[in-house]
Write a structure and sequence with these properties.
Helices cover 0% and strands 48% of the residues. It has 124 residues and is an all-beta fold.
């Protein structure tokens, strides 16, 4: 079983930056691919970025590409999302997600483990 805890959210003005962290525990972490999703009020949860296990390949939603960077530090059991050039439309609750498998997906249903979420608010 894997437990995920996000941190690093907050209030920032447009153009600013935040770094989200996802601390993972559990024996399955070493085999897991990880992802970030976000959900704004009244909207579906949507894919933001992901990183594979074996090759550390990264994938990004079009909305995130060029502004966000996902990375992982396996020694610290932590996944990060560096968010630069933030826009008001980035405002959402951001969730860390993990899977028992090494590959990633944009589908919410693919992931086995979820954090509690961290709020990101970008003011205009």
């Amino acid at each position: 079983q894997v437990q995920l805890v996000e941190s690093g959210g907050g209030l920032v003005q447009a153009g600013g930056s935040l770094r989200l962290s996802c601390a993972a525990s559990g024996r399955a972490f070493s085999n897991s691919a990880m992802a970030w999703f976000r959900q704004a009020p009244g909207k579906e949860r949507e894919f933001v970025a992901s990183i594979t296990w074996s090759t550390a390949n990264t994938y990004y939603a079009d909305s995130a590409k060029g502004r966000f960077t996902i990375s992982r530090d396996n020694a610290k059991n932590t996944v990060y999302l560096q968010m630069n050039s933030l826009k008001p439309e980035d405002t959402a609750v951001y969730y860390c997600a993990g899977t028992r498998y090494g590959g990633t997906s944009v589908r919410v249903g693919y992931y086995d483990y979820w954090g509690q979420g961290t709020q990101v608010t970008v003011s205009s």
